[in-house]
Amino acid sequence: MSSPSSHTILNNCNIVDVETGSIIRSAQITIENGLIKEITESKTKVGGEVVDMGDEFVLPGLFNVHCHLSARYPFNSQDPTEPAAMPAIRAYRRAYDALHAGITTLRSCGELHRVDLPLRDMIRDEWLVGPRILAGGKGLGVTGGHGSSFYQVEPDGADEFRKAARAELEYGADHIKIMLTGGVAGITESLEEPQMTREEVEAVVSVAKSKRTYVAAHSGGSEPTIMAAEAGVRCFEHGYVLNRAAANAIKSVGGFLVPTLVVTRSEGWQREQGDKEWVIEKSISAGPRHLESIKYAINEGVKLVTGTDHPPAALKEGVVDTVREMEWLHEVGLSPLEAIRSSTANASELCGVNSFVGLVKERYVADLIAVPANPLEDLSAMRQIRFVLKDGKLIKSGGQIVNHYSTPRSK
Q1: Element (H, E) at 11
Q2: What are the extents of the domains in the chain?
Q3: Nearest CA to 66 among 218, 293, 266?
Q4: CATH T-level topology, domain 62-351
């Protein structure tokens, strides 16, 4: 099948409406210049290039909002002196694989040499085929703190953090990532260990707000999470050890939580990557409390968003990691619809693109995927993403990658 033209019709669709949780059956989607122009009943005679979807279930393309596209695995093999071309190629390969797995939007949370910034721009300007990227540049963390081996910027004190945040936005970052606590990849730190002061957090938040963006915080513990929510942080990553008060603090400020449950339940994959035994043990031993923390968040009504921290299209027992994360969220308490929202509508809201991405809706960008069965009845249908459109361009059909080329825009 060739790539759709500027006017394409997807006929015989069952559309999953992630806003209402309903199925629009026997529908037709008309796509024009990359946008969904019209959703109507299927017709036997239609104009334009027609794709018969065979009653498959069409959903918005997926998001993964916690990626380190340039990272080397195992984590202890990071090399900040690597020539920029190496992490750039590694990042593009992971983004490319993610797109073909149905992940049409990625949010990066700290990259070597800030390779996510030019990669985002090259994809946007159609020099490369890839997912939409919301780029974070480099993360910010205290000297010797969590992520110090992951080529972050290491300011100390409110003034230095303020200056560093301004610099990341000047480089072109779409959001700011901070390292609020310790984590599983630090041998001498605890998951709950506070590493930034309130003044430092407030300085970064004030800079982000001045540019109408937000701060995402690596956060493992309850007390630092409560402090950061009060200081204006909008998004929290991991939440390894949260109590009800911390979950309520996130909810009370209209915040989001990215649980990354796969981080504490991927022992086999970690061994394949060559992680050290202490890293594997620390990750897996955190699993039960991590699960309990996310249950608190669900009970308090916190908006959850899908992210993995591992490569977005990595395979865990044959399942794409982004989909496996959705399944874990379902297993811990979300309904199939809520799990799908975590990787579509909730994610687009967090990233500030919900006015044009994240729904199958007229005038929205035609980032679409299809699965053979109703995922609202059985979420495992998401394991069978065999059709992918991004910006109205055909990426995968019938499980086969479709090669398409375009003329880059002049700079």
Answers
A1: strand 7-17
A2: 7-61+359-401, 62-351
A3: 218
A4: TIM Barrel (3.20.20)
Please give the structure tokens belonging to residue 364: 């929205």
Q: What percent of the chain is helix, strand and coil (3-state, nearest 5)?
A: 35, 25, 40
Assign 3-class secondary structure to 142-211: CCCCCCCCCCCECCCCHHHHHHHHHHHHHHCCCCEEEECECCCCCCCCCCCCECCCHHHHHHHHHHHHHC
* pLDDT of residue 89 exceeding 60: yes
Q: pLDDT (tens digit, 9 = 90+) per residue, 349-375?
A: 999 999 999 999 999 999 999 999 999
CA distance 343 to 62: 5
Neighbours of 115 (CB within 10 A): 23
Say if CB 381 and CB 337 are below 8 A apart.
no
Give the class (CATH, top level) of 7-61+359-401.
mainly beta
Please give the C-alpha separations between residue 210 and each of 180, 229, 256, in angstroms, as whole numbers: 21, 18, 20
Kindly report the pTM of this predicted structure: 0.94
What does the pLDDT look like over 34-60, one tens digit per residue?
999 999 998 766 777 889 999 999 999
Which sign does the torsion angle of CA 38, 43, 47, 50 carry?
Answer: positive
The amino acid present at 336, given as its one-letter code, is: P
Sole residue written with tokens 């099948």: 1
